[in-house]
Structure formats: C-alpha cells, structure tokens
Design goal:
By secondary structure, the protein is α/β, with parallel strands linked by helices. The protein is about 50% helix and about 10% strand. The chain starts with a strand and ends in a 20-residue tail after the last helix. The structure holds NADP nicotinamide-adenine-dinucleotide phosphate.
C-alpha cells in the first residue's frame, strides 16, 4: 500500500501501529523515531520498525508519516520535519485532540504535503514501546478530520491504511471530534483523575485503606487514572473549550443528583440508573466492549479502554 511509513513517537500507539502495519504488510519499510534514546534502543531490540536516530532521516522518502508523540510536541516536530518531507507525502497523527493539532502543525507544512489528522479510538493505560501490540486497533474506530479542501485521494489512502490496521474509519470535522471526545473520553478521564485524587487526599481514609478495600468501582477509576500523565496533560491543555463545555453540563447534572440523594428521591435515582444501564447495553450490542465479568480483562488485558 505504501513504500516507507514512519511513526514519530514509539510508545504505546506508535509501536502498536508499527506492529499492525507490519502484520498486514502495509508498507515496504516501517520506520520509527523517538526523542528518547532509551526508547529508540528498546524499539530497535523489539524489532517492530527500522529505528532512525534523527527526525530528518526518519521522514526522508516516507510516503506516510504519522505523529505518535504527545500532542504538545507536534508543533516542534512539524517545524523540524517540514523541509524534509517528500512531495505528495501524507502527514497524519494519532492525537486525542484535533483542532489544536491542525492549528499547531498546518503553518509549517509545504503545499505539496497532504495533512490528514486522525485519532484511533483505541488504547490502554500503559505506555512505552513494550506496551504495543498488533491487535490494538482491531474492531475499533479511527476518526479522520481532514481540513477543508484536503486531497480526496490522500484521505482515501489513509482510510485504507487504517482499515488494514483493523479499524473502521469515520470522517468528521475537528471541532465536532473534539466535542464528542471531550464527552466520551476526556471528561471521563478527568473525573477518574479527580476521584482517585480525592480518595488519596481524604484524611479519614489512609492510603493503605484506599488500596486495601478498593471496591470494583474505585478500581476501575484507578485504571483510567493510571493513564500517561504527559499525554493527558496535553489533552486538557489542547481541548480546553470542549472540556469546559462538557464539564459545565456534568456539574449541573451532578448537582441534580446531589439534591436527589439529599432529598431521598429514589425515583429520580432509579430513573437515571436505568437509563445509564441501557447505554452500557448499547455499547455491548455494537461490540465495543465485552459482556464478560471484569470487562473480560482477565482473558484479554489489552482491550481495556
Ligand atoms: P506514550 O506511550 O507515552 O508514547 C509517546 C512517545 O513519544 C514516548 O516514547 C515519548 O518519549 C515520545 N515523544 C515525546 N516527545 C517526542 C518528540 N518530540 N519526538 C518524538 N517522540 C517524542 O504515549 P501514547 O499513549 O503512545 O500516546 C501517543 C499519542 O497517541 C498521543 O498524542 C495521544 O494523544 C494519542 N493517543 C493515545 C491513546 C492512549 O490510550 N494512550 C489513544 C489514542 C490516541 P518520552 O517518553 O521520552 O517523552
């Protein structure tokens, strides 16, 4: 499908993408670069990509370059690689926010490069090159957010690449993506970080007790709250507007729930809990999670997110 494909950033997503592209032989060369010399050395040992020591060499002659670093680094990377990108190359990314990525990367790009941002809705709370695996994207959605006037052929090639990596592909504009993901991913992460932080800070409950008596609900929050701090810091710095919009609604709804608890309004609580249970059922119905106990995690630790 492609000649040389380069992943920049060889952590969970970059290494998984290299494994997935290698599995279906989507490129004649799968190349990689990471800012960390340790990660580069580890990736070379694991052997999922040909690892280069400089950004320039990694992107030279590449037909497809995919930014897989935390989104806060994209502007600097784009500035460095722009003069070395091949004419007609496709530049893409996997960042969890899309408006800020367009804002940060586009100004540096030559006309002859097709920039088509993307976001795979797949991941785990693990990071680093050892965390990657080929089936991470299987059956998951990948959202493309091509800017206005993007080359249709380039969009189609990227769609086929993601199909080859196991994903179904949807296309939407960046602002819509950022609002949807604020609701389905970013704010849930913020809530998890907050609740685990609150439990840790609670003076009456020692850290030991929080860990010792952690019930299923709290344990599930701790899994999400163990996600990579750099990646998630960058998500909240770069999707502020949509996160604040969703958080505003969340706070209003939480106040209603607080009042129902204070008033002993069982009817309101039961009505909400029934509605939310139905949402869980719909997610299972479309195959986006497992109905097995413990989310099927014992058998498939990788399908956690
Ligand atoms: P990760 O496992 O921490 O990997 C990121 C890698 O990028 C690290 O090895 C990091 O090195 C490296 N890096 C940092 N700055 C760089 C730079 N300037 N140039 C080259 N490499 C650089 O993180 P990840 O989970 O793969 O996330 C990567 C991207 O995927 C993020 O943009 C995130 O929004 C997106 N994403 C993540 C998930 C998920 O669930 N994790 C899901 C969908 C999309 P250092 O460790 O030395 O900083």
């Amino acid at each position: 499908m492609f000649g040389k494909v380069t992943m920049i950033g060889l952590g969970l997503i970059g290494s998984s993408l290299a494994h997935a592209a290698g599995r279906k032989k989507l490129a004649t060369e799968i190349a990689g670069y990471d800012i960390s010399a340790d990660v580069r050395a580890r990736a070379a040992t694991l052997g999922f990509a040909k690892v280069y020591d400089t950004l320039e060499a990694a992107v030279k002659d590449a037909d497809l370059v995919i930014l897989c670093a935390p989104v806060g680094a994209y502007g600097d990377i784009a500035k460095t690689i722009a003069p070395h990108l091949k004419s007609d190359a496709i530049l893409s990314d996997v960042g969890s926010v899309k408006g800020a990525v367009l804002r940060d990367v586009t100004p540096f790009l030559p006309q002859a490069v097709h920039f088509i941002p993307a976001h795979p809705i797949a991941g785990t709370e693990q990071s680093g090159p050892d965390a990657g695996f080929a089936s991470l994207f299987d059956g998951r959605w990948c959202i493309l957010t091509p800017p206005e006037g993007a080359d249709a052929g380039a969009v189609e090639k990227l769609r086929l690449f993601w199909n080859g990596c196991g994903s179904q592909v949807d296309v939407m504009d960046a602002a819509h993506h950022d609002l949807v993901l604020a609701m389905t991913s970013h704010v849930p992460h913020l809530i998890a970080y907050n609740i685990v932080g609150t439990a840790h800070d609670l003076e009456a409950v020692t850290e030991g007790e929080v860990i010792k008596y952690s019930a299923g609900g709290f344990r599930d929050f701790t899994r999400i709250a163990a996600s990579d701090p750099t990646m998630w810091r960058d998500v909240f710095l770069n999707n502020r507007q949509a996160v604040l919009e969703v958080l505003g609604r969340f706070n209003e709804d939480l106040s209603v729930l607080q009042r129902a608890v204070r008033d002993g309004n069982g009817e309101a609580l039961f009505e909400l809990f029934s509605r939310t249970r139905a949402i869980r059922r719909s997610i299972l119905d479309i195959g986006q999670d497992s109905a097995a106990p413990n989310f099927g995690r014992d058998k498939s630790p990788e399908k956690n997110q």
